[in-house]
């Protein structure tokens, strides 16, 4: 979890009684009288330093297959309990391609200077797809 120092106490109160022991990367100072119990608190600068040190020793795999899961989109579900829908590296571009022709009147590929103001939350599947279409076209995306 990433939080500011003031939130460490809140995390402790919420998670401590449940026996959860998360790692919390803190962006600023933690008050000395804040009880952290089982929460491991690490300064953000230390996280950055660990990442830089690991960059030369940890292999990064950058060629997923089209069947590899890319992300899990959570849905409130109109047919039952909320669930996570697994989207693959192949299904995301396929969905964007299927939807792309529907927005040609808004912005055509190759036009310069386009800006898209996203108004739905990024967690909304339609906004996610539209945003990816515009990013693929080189359009600047802003959230309003």
TrEMBL record:
Superkingdom of the source species: Eukaryota
InterPro entries assigned to the protein according to its UniProt record, in alphabetical order: AMP-dep_synth/lig_dom (IPR000873), ANL_N_sf (IPR042099)
Residues covered by the AMP-dependent synthetase/ligase domain: 52-141
GO cellular component: endoplasmic reticulum; membrane
TM stretches of this protein: none
Keywords: ATP-binding, Ligase, Nucleotide-binding
Nucleotide-binding listed as a keyword: yes
A GO molecular-function descriptor: ATP binding
Keyword set includes Ligase: yes
Family: Belongs to the ATP-dependent AMP-binding enzyme family.
Protein name stated in the entry: AMP-binding enzyme
């Amino acid at each position: 979890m990433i939080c500011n120092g003031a939130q460490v106490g809140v995390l402790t109160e919420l998670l401590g009684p449940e026996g959860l022991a998360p790692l919390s990367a803190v962006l600023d100072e933690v008050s000395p009288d804040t009880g952290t119990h089982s929460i491991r608190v690490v300064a953000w600068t230390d996280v950055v330093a660990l990442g830089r040190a690991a960059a030369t020793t940890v292999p990064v795999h950058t060629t997923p297959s089209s069947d590899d899961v890319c992300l899990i989109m959570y849905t409130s579900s109109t047919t039952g309990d909320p669930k996570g829908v697994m989207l693959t590296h192949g299904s995301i571009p396929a969905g964007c391609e299927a939807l792309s022709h529907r927005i040609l009147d808004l912005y055509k590929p190759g036009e310069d200077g386009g800006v898209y103001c996203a108004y739905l939350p990024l967690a909304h599947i339609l906004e996610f797809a539209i945003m990816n279409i515009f990013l693929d076209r080189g359009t600047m995306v802003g959230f309003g």
